[in-house]
Amino acid sequence: MQHTISVLMNNRFGVLSRVSGLFSSRGFNIESLNVAETSDPEISHMTIVTRGDNAKIEQITKQLNKLVDVIKVIDLTEEKFVDRELLLIKINAEVRVREEILRIVDLFRAKVVDVSPSAYTIEITGDEGKIASFLELLTPLGIKEIVRSGRIAIGRGNKSIH
Question: Which residue in 161, 154, 8 sits closest to 82, CA to CA?
């Protein structure tokens, strides 16, 4: 089962390395990883997407909590949360498919952020399903390059990781 884990940690050199090392030393794969400062530049928020049964995920969260610079760990999978991902995609923009590309972009509320004679670069944000559907429609038109941010997530309602 896929799990989304939210980690609040001190924004210090080497913390990311220790967290990712914890996963690799136990044979866990990180499917998606996103780290950035919070409103406090001394603290970072990390969103990790991984797979495993509940026992393995519990083991990982306990090990994460033991790391000195980790402040708090929450497995959001058991809670209600909002998640998004940013995708930048460069697609062939031959004259014959430009209108179709722009219709798809409009339908998904995406945005063309760069135009050249032979390619469009498009930006889209959304959950995993929206991103997958968008890619499915654009794939036959000739994708040149894809860059994804990885998932970011936050719990719903008043509850906060702080």
Answer: 154
